[in-house]
Amino acid sequence: MKFSLLENFFGIRTGARIADQIILGVLPIFFIFLLWVFATSGRTETVTLPDGIFEGYEKAAPPDGTLFKDRIRLTIENSSLEYASEIDPDQGSVLVKDGQRFKLGNMPARPFGKSVRITLPIGRIIDRVKEPPLPIEVPGKKVSESLPVAVPNASGGEPIAVPAVTDTTVASIDSTLDAVTAKAKPPLMKFNYQFEIVETRIISPSMLPSPSEVSRSLPSLWSDRFLPKNILFSFLRVSAGFLVAFSIVFPVSLMMGTFSKCKALFAPLMLFAGYLPIPALVPLFMILFGTNELQKIMFLAFGFAIYLLPLFVKALEEVDNVYLQTGYTLGAGKFQILNNILLPIALPNLYDAMRLGFGIGWGYIILAEMVDMGSFGVGTLILTSQRRGPREDIYLVLIAIVLMAFITDKIWEKVGERLFPYRSQRR
Amino acid sequence: MNFRGKLFLVLMAMLAICFSFAQAQEAPEAPDTESITTVKDYKFVPRETLPPVQGTSAYKWDDKEKVVVFPINVWAGWLPIIAANNGFAPNEDSVFFKKYGFKVNLKLIDDPVVARDTFASGESHVLWGTLDMMVLFAPELMKDSRTAPRIFQQVDWSSGGDGIVARSKIRSVADLKGKTIVYAQNSPSQYFISNLLINAGIGLEEVTHKYTTTAFEAAAAFVSDPKIDACVSWAPDIYTIPEKVAGTRILTTTGEANKLIADVWAVRADFARDKPEIVKGLVAGIFAGIDMLNNPTTKAQAFQWMADGYGMKIEDVQAMEADAHPTNFAENREFFLNANNPTNFERTWKSIAYVYNQAGLVKEAVPFNQVMDFSLIDELGKSGEFKHHQDNYVSKFVPTTYNKVNAEAPIITQTVRINFYPNSSNIYEPAHDITGNAVLNTLYDPNIEATLDKVARLVGAYDRAVVAIVGHTDSSMKGKIPEKIVKDLSLSRAEAVKKALVDKYKFDEKKFVVEGEGWNKPADNDNPMNQALNRRVEVSVFPPESN
Question: Which of A146, A304, A399, B389 suits a disulfide with A245, CB 3.0-4.6 Å?
């Protein structure tokens, strides 16, 4: 296959193969996606922590490689916490277990009885490390030789908690209970945990979630927050508003495009309406149409109408006078001119205006669904997610709307090809 | 009927026989409630519970100019900081510059979502909000340890600024059952109404909720749609609607629930870490602003700045003054440090978390001690800089009687279920063993502290209102014993609840009226013989006008 993507890139109206069109169309989207990934990837870090009880894994410990998709709590028994010192607050708090110190960095931790409870950030357990038993050295001979067998544990394997023995002087009196229990204690289990330091991202996660976070939020948005139902509600509203707008705009534009006096009658109104800041009109529509579906549909209809009306009028006015004069010459009456000449010629342009205008409704959906937010809709989803999160859902809804727009536009296009086959002829 | 019920029946009969004996026996033996201290300070150190901050700070800062960007909304509570800052723009005549060497840029950002986004992006250092908004914002902001909110100071209590307007037929919160309410979602309005409904024992699903984005739209929806029975909104709408629209009335406002909605500000955690002296200057400067408002000329000037900054007329700004009560140092100390205060930060935060959990908005709220930092209030207390501030947000009550108070419908009635030991009115009654001897260190009703706390939070939030505590008994002995006996028992139970509240939470005794209804008012009129429901204490909040 010939590589034709860059060939004759700036050729005027040279046409492009469909495969090239798709590749070229996807490129900028892919570029934006890469930017998104770049701006929301932080440095990863690996910490070593003593093993403990993972929230949700009380019965069986999570295996190596487990990915935690949510922040979870890890309870480490028989340990203590040292807080960041005043002198070096950046150091973060330190966990102490069996005399070993573990830096916690920015992980929130608090004492919980005799244990310490750490909130782990989203991340993965890489592997577990088994710490060899503390070699307790005695000059000349090893302690382990003097105590060849670990003291049997009567309580069935339950280790007896004791303060760590790090001081070698203790070991010289190797018959003490401390030395014995230190030996009896199982080795300290540790694990390596890898996570992303979200603070190193270019854009903070409290502003923009990363693509993976957004994708993880999809199941809950889909099933818990009923994304399909919300899209359906919004789609029905947009369609209903469109139909209402069409049924008003079509006759009005027909009159304006045909009769100059009628145009003079409505032209100033059309101009002013186009300049109105629509958000300010939300309360007015509420007073006129209540707080239920009617208000949302009428609001959307208004948004459609002020967009469609000038386009419709223009489409009708663009019909060349030659056709009308030919009609008159052939003895056509007023109605025939309108029905057989003006409308059929303007119809493809009217259809294009409708296709362009249908997208406008999705732009106004947030404003329309501001009132009575309990009654479903993607606008409501965005508004509530802005307030109480998850922020991920905002971007998911935006993506859903984009997909929706893509599908509906394809439908408009296909229907247009059927209705006006002479238009889609190759130029 | 269960065993406890039978036991109760038998003992009621015994009570009838040896009434005077029982009276003499119960009086002096109330066990110590152990918490009779006015102020109990927190033991923990905020630094240890607050989530640590990591990474390089991400807020905008110019070390030469030193301008703190402090967004505010249209709200009366910001008058002290406007006075302290000598207007909205950063300037060198402000208290902040003269005393602490930095400038403050007060920016009007009325939309909470926009304010939150400027805060999260580092364009501003401060986030304004009510405490309930902070509960909603905190989980998202804490995804980044640098944007975690730190709350050092309370600005004011809403004191008439928020309210509920209803059609005239609705006399009490209980009447809202099955009705339609409109309010701004995820806002103080939602917390206000949800809190009331839950306290009145009405499930949130028993009411039709209609949501808007702002309180103004809620008021407009109520006015335009007669099918809506009530709205939650702000001043001045809540006061102008009853004047303009026939058949509407104010159900309740934060004029009575004057310790329910707390306005605070939060700083970014990284800013608090890097510039503790500036945060301290902000806190102290706002307290200084409260002092400056004692001077009428400064106050008039502050109102003028406020009017200019908000683009409003000065009369309108002055009319807002009654909406909020700016909290001075002493009141902040009560709010942040007094662990026994029924309306302190911790309890307010927990109430919000509970209400929003019931409403399905928050699954698990951030613990209060991960956002609250009382260290600066504590430091200022030790330095004695504001020791001239007195807690003057204390309501005064004149002694009154139940009959006088009960002439009007209560705003809200909370049914409290305390399991009294049969024939006892001691709420701290220990459990008894099978022979009837009291068991040490046990409680017959183990939930009593939690129950009292719930009552205290309602009573505390309605600081200005009069509270009636009415005791009821079951009607199992009706016709067998004289009515006076049960009336006395129910009265002494009501008295016991009152005493416990006054002892533990230091309420003014004159705030309460007590009454014993005996068996006259069954809990459920459709099923008057449901005796388990009938043994209860009801706490009713009455508007302060009626005393």
Answer: A304
Q: What is the pLDDT of residues B24-48, one digit of tens each?
A: 343 333 344 444 445 678 888 887 7
Question: B129 vs chain A: nearest CA distance in angstroms?
Answer: 12
Q: Do A373 and B140 touch (CB under 8 A)?
A: no
B525 touches chain A (CB under 8 A): no
Task: Please report whether residue A258 resides in a domain.
Answer: yes
Phi and psi torsions of B540, nearest 5°: -115, 135
Q: Which residue of chain B has the CA closest to A386?
A: B113
A320 and A295 in a common domain: yes
B437 touches A at CB < 8 Å = no
Q: In the prediction, which pLDDT does B448 show?
A: 86
pTM of the full structure: 0.82
Say whether both A300 and A417 belong to one domain.
yes
Report the distance separating Cα B298 and Cα B83, nearest Å: 7
B-chain residues near A388 (CB < 8 A): 136-137, 140, 186, 361-362
Read off the DSSP letter of residue A90.
Answer: G
CATH at residue A300: 1.10.3720.10
> A204 and B58 in contact by Cβ < 8 A?
yes
CB atoms within 10 A of CB B269: 25
> Residues near B530 by Cβ (< 8 Å), separated by ≥ 6?
B522, B523, B524
Q: Please check whether residues A87 and A127 belong to one and the same domain.
A: yes
Q: Are residues A269 and A402 in the same domain?
A: yes
Domain co-membership, A419 together with A315: yes
* Residue-wise pLDDT tens digits, B418-466: 877 777 788 888 888 777 777 777 888 888 888 888 899 999 999 888 8
Same domain for A168 and A92, yes or no, is no
pLDDT at A111: 79
What is the tens place of the pLDDT at every residue in B225-279? 888 999 999 988 999 999 999 999 999 999 989 999 999 999 999 999 999 999 9
Which member of B49, B136, B185 has the closest CB to residue A110? B49
Residue A24 lies in a domain: no
Judge if A107 and A64 occupy the same domain: yes
Instruction: Provide the shortest C-alpha distance from residue A305 to chain B (in Å).
Output: 24
Q: Is residue A209 part of a domain?
A: no
Q: Is B225 on the interface with A (CB under 8 A)?
A: yes
User: Considering only CB atoms, which chain B residues are within 8 Å of A372?
Assistant: 182, 210-212, 221
Provide the token pair at B33. 């409630």
| Total structural domains within chain A | 3
- Chain B CA closest to residue A280: B217
The answer to the question of residue A36 being in a domain is no
Phi first, then psi: what are they for B202, rounded to 5°?
Answer: -100, 125
| Per-residue CA distances from B250 to A149, A317, B525 (Å) | 81, 57, 28
Host domain of residue A158: 143-179
Calculate how close chain B gets to A391, using CA atoms only, in Å: 8
ipTM higher than threshold 0.85? no
- DSSP codes of every residue in A344-387: HHHHHHHHHHHHHHHTHHHHTHHHHTTSSTTS--HHHHHHHHHH
pLDDT above 50: residue A210: yes
